[in-house]
């Protein structure tokens, strides 16, 4: 059985002081989540990772929002996998659409990061999803299929099994205009079938999340869909009450 997963992506929000306040309040949610087979986590900025990691129990996931694929070297402004591991971080979001748009990250660049994370025994959360233009042209599946193929290129089935996929249609991110559960389930079901073609039966063990304007009042709809294993949440994960309500909507 695939555990559900609630992951809050804080993007460029919260000072370390604010992040620590959230962590202190969120700590007690782990027990409720575990009792219902839901994994929970947050992805703070690099600066707050260590403080949040220390403030939360080990089973509460604390993820980076990005990582560089090189272990060290002349990469000004970048953060490496050994740096993350040193402070107890073993998850990283890769290929978020904001990084694809503002930092020109390609799926092949994501592939290098995913491979480096897997080699280090870490968990990548690989984000993909189409623009409004691609959606309106009816080309979502072809687009997403290329992102999958390139992002997961040359992975063995055993490696692929450790990757979490997040389908986030760009037109639904931060817009309040979420994809209907029918659209989300249709694309995520397609993603699972594509994973099966590439990697075989391990596709049944792989968790695929939906992201894009997930709120406490719509999270349950997604969770009722057979292929949707959780949510990657931006805005609604920033406030502790709203985060708790998201969790309640998943149990
Ligand atoms: P919102 O939940 O704010 O739409 O953001 C979604 C997202 O980008 C999570 O990674």
What does this structure look like?
The chain is an alpha/beta fold and 251 residues long. It has a single domain, classed as Alpha-Beta Barrel (TIM Barrel), CATH 3.20.20. Helices cover 43% and strands 15% of the residues. It has 12 helices and 8 strands. The protein has an 8-stranded parallel beta barrel with strand order 1-2-3-4-5-6-7-8, surrounded by 6 helices. Helix 4 (81-86) links the parallel strand 3 and strand 4 (91-94). The mean pLDDT is 98. Bound molecules: 1,3-dihydroxyacetonephosphate. 1,3-dihydroxyacetonephosphate binds at residues 9, 96, 168, 173-174, 211-214, 232-236.
Q: What is the 3D shape? A: globular
Q: What's the number of extended β-strand segments?
A: 8
Q: How are the strands ordered across the major sheet? A: 1-2-3-4-5-6-7-8
Mind telling me which CATH architecture this is? Alpha-Beta Barrel
Biggest sheet record: 8 strands, parallel, barrel
Level of helix content? 40-55%
Number of helices: 12
Distance between the termini: 15 Å
Q: How big a fraction of the residues is strand?
A: 15-25%
Tell me the name of the CATH class. Alpha Beta
Q: How many structural domains can be distinguished in the coordinates?
A: 1
Report the structural category: alpha/beta
Q: Could you tell me which ligands this complex binds, including any ions or cofactors?
A: 1,3-dihydroxyacetonephosphate
Give structural attributes.
globular; alpha/beta; 12 helices; 43% helix; TIM Barrel; 251 residues; 8 strands; single chain; binds 1,3-dihydroxyacetonephosphate
């Amino acid at each position: 059985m695939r555990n559900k997963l609630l992951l809050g992506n804080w993007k460029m929000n919260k000072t370390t002081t604010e992040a620590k306040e959230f962590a202190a309040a969120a700590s007690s949610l782990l027990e409720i989540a575990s009792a219902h087979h839901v994994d929970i986590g947050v992805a703070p900025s690099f600066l707050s990772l260590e403080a949040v990691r220390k403030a939360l129990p080990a089973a509460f996931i604390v993820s980076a929002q990005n990582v560089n694929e090189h272990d060290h070297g002349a990469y000004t402004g970048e953060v490496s996998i050994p740096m993350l591991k040193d402070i107890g971080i073993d998850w990283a979001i890769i290929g978020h659409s904001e990084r694809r748009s503002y930092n020109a990250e390609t799926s092949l660049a994501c592939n290098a990061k995913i491979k480096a994370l897997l080699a280090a025994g870490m968990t990548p959360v690989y984000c993909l999803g189409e623009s409004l233009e691609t959606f309106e042209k009816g080309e979502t599946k072809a687009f997403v299929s290329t992102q999958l193929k390139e992002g997961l290129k040359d992975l063995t089935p055993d490696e692929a099994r450790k990757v979490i996929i997040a389908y986030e249609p760009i037109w639904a991110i931060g817009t309040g205009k979420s994809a209907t559960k029918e659209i989300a389930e249709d694309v995520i079901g397609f993603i699972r079938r594509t994973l099966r073609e590439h990697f075989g039966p391990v596709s049944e063990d792989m968790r695929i999340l939906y992201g894009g304007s997930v709120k406490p009042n719509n999270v349950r709809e997604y969770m009722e869909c057979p292929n949707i294993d959780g949510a990657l949440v931006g805005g609604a994960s920033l406030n502790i009450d709203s985060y708790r309500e998201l969790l309640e909507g998943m149990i």
